[in-house]
Amino acid sequence: MSYCAKCLIEIAPRVKDCPQCGSPVVGQLAPEQKVRVEWCLVGIFNDVTQANMAKIALESNGLPVLLKTDVIHSALLVQGTALPGAYALLFVLRRDRLIARRIVKGMTGK
Ligand SMILES: [Zn+2]
């Protein structure tokens, strides 16, 4: 598994640059960074209403969800992680990420 050392998110295998910030991905994170990737980013929303709908959809499937609408001050994102136009980030537990991405994709078509 690869990670973005800047965003501290998981990156799909064979992807060379972080889709979120464009930084090169790394194979491992330092141990103190690892706790952060227990929550995996599964959706970036411009629309908080849509983000909440996705959250409800995931929760109705029994998945714990973390919705960050205060992106700039999010403790899960390190400094310098600019996400222009993004107002809500949706995270799920690492173990739920695949099913969560399917659910979110089904909702947003992205
Ligand atoms: Zn990144």
Jot down its keywords.
110 residues, alpha+beta, three-stranded antiparallel β-sheet, binds zinc ion
Mean pLDDT: 77
The radius of gyration computed from the alpha-carbon positions, rounded to a whole number of angstroms, is 13 Å
Beta-strand content estimate: 15-25%
Question: Total helix count?
Answer: 3
Give the strand line-up of the largest sheet.
Answer: 2-1-3
| Number of structural domains | 1
How is the main sheet built?
A: 3 strands, antiparallel
The helical percent reads: 25-40%
N/C terminus separation: 22 Å
Q: Which outline best applies? A: globular
Secondary-structure element order, N to C: EEEHEHEEH
Q: Which segments are poorly predicted (pLDDT under 50) over 5 or more consecutive residues?
A: 72-82
The class by helix and strand makeup works out as alpha+beta
Bound molecule kinds, no repeats:
zinc ion
- How many distinct beta strands? 6
List the helices and strands and how they pair.
Elements: E1 2-4, E2 10-11, E3 25-26, H1 31-34, E4 39-45, H2 48-60, E5 65-68, E6 88-93, H3 97-108
Antiparallel strand pairs: 1-2, 1-3, 4-6, 5-6
Helix pairs in contact: 2-3
This protein binds zinc ion (ZN).
Describe, in plain words, how this protein is organized in 3D:
With about 110 residues, the protein is α+β, with helices and mostly antiparallel strands. It has one domain (about 1-110). It has helices at about 30-35, 50-60, 95-110, and strands spanning about 1-5, 10, 25, 40-45, 65-70, 90-95. The chain has a 3-stranded antiparallel beta sheet, with no helix packed on it. It is globular. Residues about 70-80 have low confidence and may be disordered. Zinc ion binds near residues 4, 18 and 20.
